Amino acid sequence: MDSMVSLKDARDYLLNLPDQLDDYLDDDYRRGLNNLLDRFVEFFNIVASINLRASEDRIIEASEATEVSDYGFVLLLKLIDLMERLDLPHKRKEVEQISLVVARWTISYDGTINHLEPVVNAIAQLANLMQEKQALLALSDLIADIVDHCSQDLKMDRGDGEELRPWRLLHINRGIVATRTHDLGVMKKAFDEFLIYLPQEATGFFAEGMKEMDALDYPPHVRKVMESYFNQTPSVRIH
Q1: How many CB atoms lie within 10 A of CB 9?
Q2: Rounded CA gap, 117 and 164, in Å?
Q3: For residues 178 and 2, what is the distance between their CA atoms, to the nearest angstrom?
Q4: Scanning 69, 145, 167, 179, which has the fewest C-beta atoms within 10 Å of its C-beta?
Q5: How far apart are CA 77 and CA 132, in angstroms?
Q6: If 0-12 CB within 10 Å is exposed, 13-18 middle and 19+ buried, where does residue 37 land?
Q7: Pseudo-torsion of CA 99, 100, 101, 104, nearest 10°?
Q8: pTM (2 decimals)?
């Protein structure tokens, strides 16, 4: 499935979902899904009304965008949970892509992103599919915007070594995508923010990056940047 880029794409996808899942749904699941989709229609109607007000040059408060965004993400998490219970990983991945549509909308009104897990999963899926530099640069820009608009609670997450926590995975994916762009400015911005937000994890990230330089034969200018960051992070010593 191509990545969804608009609210209309997301809405159309969701409204077609019952037909796609017909063979997997018993009566209870069907009722649950239809109820959830009714709430999604409400969400998209609210979003449309905000977009209309914005098009009339009326000011949209960031707090209102955040509240609506939270509602959309809660619905998405419920739908993702349903896909898991139905044991449909492919559909789960499709639904997770909608989180990027909601994230972009939130960012457009300077709202705050409070629900990161589906966003990070969607980014990882896209990154795995992308080869072209322009696509990787566009994804890098989106990740940078997402980092900027994450809640303070997420930004303060220094972590407890939990490798799969979304805030950590967001920065690791950002660093990987930035490296694959071969764009030094994009790499430096991603790496600098990695050092700011996850200083205790930087050594491991740049050490892994140096291994990738060898394994994937990156060009010298990219290797030089990775090497400079690797050399400025303290090595871990066991006393």
Answers
A1: 15
A2: 10
A3: 22
A4: 145
A5: 31
A6: middle
A7: 120
A8: 0.92
- d(CA 183, CA 133) in angstroms, rounded, equals 9
Candidates 112, 150, 102; CA nearest to 6 is: 102
Contact between 80 and 121 under an 8 Å Cβ cutoff? The reply is no
Q: What is the pLDDT of residues 33-69, one digit of tens each?
A: 999 999 999 999 999 999 999 999 999 999 999 999 9
Q: What gap in Å lies between CA 130 and CA 41, rounded to an integer?
A: 31
Task: Give the burial string for 38-72 (b: 16+ CB within 10 Å, else e).
Answer: eebeebbeebeebeeeeeeeeebeeeebbebbbbb
Q: In whole angstroms, what is the distance from residue 186 CA to residue 101 CA?
A: 23
Three-class SS state of 205: helix
- ∠ CA 93-97-100 to the nearest 5 degrees? 150
Cβ atoms of residues 66 and 81 within 8 Å: no
Distance CA 131, CA 154 (A): 30
Please give the structure tokens belonging to residue 42: 């409400």
